[in-house]
Amino acid sequence: MLDPATVVSISDLNRLARLSLEREFPLLWVAGEISNLTRAASGHVYFSLKDENAQARCVMFRSRAQSIPWRLENGQQVEARALVSLYEPRGEYQLNIETLRQAGLGRLFEAFARLKARLETEGLFAVERKRALPRFPRRIGIISSPRAAALRDVMVALQRRAPHLTAILYPTLVQGESAAEEIAKAIAVAGQRNECDLLLIVRGGGSIEDLWAFNEELVVRAIVASPLPTICGVGHETDTTIADYVADLRAATPTAAAELATQGWYEAAGKIAGLGIALSRAMQTRIARQQQGLDHLSLRLIHPATRLMQARDRLALLGSRLDAAMTHGLHRHRDRANRAALALGRSVPRTDKRRGRIGLLEQRLDAAIRTQQQKRRNALDSIEAALAHLNPEATLARGFSIVRDADGKLVTNAATLRAGQTVSLYLARGGAEASILASSADHQAIAT
Fold first, then answer.
1. Helices within 167-241 (DSSP H only)
2. CA-to-CA distance for 155 and 200, rounded, in angstroms?
3. What is the H or E stretch that residue 170 is in?
4. Cβ 47 vs Cβ 34: under 8 Å
5. CB within 8 Å of 400: residues ≥ 6 apart
6. H or E element in which residue 109 lies
7. pLDDT tens, 154-175?
8. Range with top average pLDDT, 191-205, 285-299, 344-358
9. Phi-psi region of 235 (alpha: psi -120 to 50; beta: other; left: phi over 0)
10. Quick check: 203 and 239 in contact, CB under 8 A?
11. In the predicted model, is pLDDT for residue 104 greater than 70?
């Protein structure tokens, strides 16, 4: 609300009046007779609607006037779908006409209202019944006339937003007495073939008679029974058919139906494009950062000739340092050797006095060694004689023998032998097998 004390211009007043009228009055149907009809060069049509008591100025813009299937003439009784508005430059109240229909079509609207109420009672308009549309359909079916402008609009939109999609046309009449039957048949065929993910039912704008096929119960029932999700885009934005109510989604126009069908692909493409831009920016930023680092490194880069010259100078410096260090070390070691020689000379023991004693000790050591060697030799001779005495071979040489039983054990007691037992005899030279004839503990065994 304006403050009564506020002063406004005529332009602002007319603008506020227009906004108020358009806000307070929705789109409505107005009946009257056409008079003062004028066609402008721009294609817009100007006329008045009047009855017995009043009249109102009307304008029908070119895009709307082209959709009227008959020629407008003065004196025609019509019903106009109009938006109440105001022409600001002149301050004139007027009706902006969206569409026209010839008077006497009330029976169609009554039939429309009755069918709509009955189907709504059945729950066919319920949101819960509507199916979700596939976000990324790959094949889209189209129910339309092959010669319809609506089909061209749909194909243009599909090619613009998702050119990779496959479109399958199920041709049908969209106007006339047999249109409803053909539309229902086309919907059923699309469902039976099940070769698409989504079904578009489209037609351009027109009068209520032109769009009536989409208000027929036959078509409505076919849409409800279809196993495919459906988008209905029939007529212009202000046109509404019963098919719009039962479809899974209503589109304002055929083009809008194609846009809704490809919304997922279009948004994905936009997102991918955005990601591509972001990636490009990130790459550019990374390249710029690397280039900056390269610039800093290039400042530290030295020409090979300069580096060689620096290395040669450093090598010469290190060589002079090495020569100086070696000379200094040599002098230091020479001094240490001289000092060590002097110290060694002072520490050499005097051996003249001890040389005679050393000779005496050597003589005594030789005599002790010879004495010790003789003692060892005598002991060795005694051991050798004892070993010779104990040698079994020497005993055998004197006529003795070694007796072993069958198990190879030594026989030292005749009592362990039995008559008939076989023993082995080992002599100084060779051996023999013997058999015991008799044995006694007090007597020697008799063997053969």
1. 179-193, 217-225
2. 11
3. strand 166-171
4. yes
5. none
6. helix 106-121
7. 999 999 999 999 999 999 999 8
8. 191-205
9. left
10. no
11. no
pLDDT at 338: 85
Instruction: Give residues with Cβ within 8 angstroms of 14, minimum separation 6.
Output: 86, 88, 89, 91
Which stretches of 301-420 are DSSP H helices? 304-347, 352-390, 392-397
Rounded-to-integer distance, Cα 199 and Cα 181, Å: 18
83 or 108, higher pLDDT: 83
* CA atoms of 368 and 431, how far apart (whole Å): 52
Q: CA–CA distance from 237 to each of 240, 241, 247, 256, 257 (Å)?
A: 8, 11, 16, 10, 11
CA distances from 283 to 275, 293, 390, 438 (A): 12, 15, 107, 121
For residue 110, pLDDT beyond 80? no
Edge-first strand order for the sheet with 166-171 is 166-171, 139-144, 198-203, 230-234, 249-250
Question: 84: which residues sit within 8 A by CB, 6+ positions away?
Answer: 21, 22, 24, 25, 28, 93, 95
Query: What is the pairing mode between strands 446-447 and 431-438?
Result: antiparallel
CA-to-CA distance for 231 and 186, rounded, in angstroms? 15
First to last CA, the chain: 162
Kindly state the greatest CA–CA separation across the chain: 182
Q: Of 27, 41, 74, give the one whose Cα is nearest residue 55.
A: 74
| pLDDT per residue as tens digits for the range 271-314 | 888 888 889 888 988 888 888 777 777 777 777 777 788 888 88
Domains of the chain: 10-104 (2.40.50.140), 109-267 (3.40.50.2300), 395-447 (no CATH)
CA–CA distance, 256 with 153 (Å, rounded to integer): 9
Torsion of CA 194, 196, 197, 203, to 10 degrees: -110
DSSP 39-97: E-TTS-EEEEEE-SS-EEEEEE-HHHHTT-SS---TT-EEEEEEEEEEETTTTEEEEEE
Per the listing, tokens 């002063």 go with 7
Instruction: Classify residue 272 by burial, with Cβ atoms within 10 Å: 0-12, 13-18, 19+.
Output: exposed
What whole-number percentage of the chain has pLDDT above 90? 25
Q: Nearest to residue 200, comparing CAs of 227, 234, 163?
A: 234
Query: What is the C-alpha R_g of the chain?
Result: 66
d(CA 336, CA 177): 132
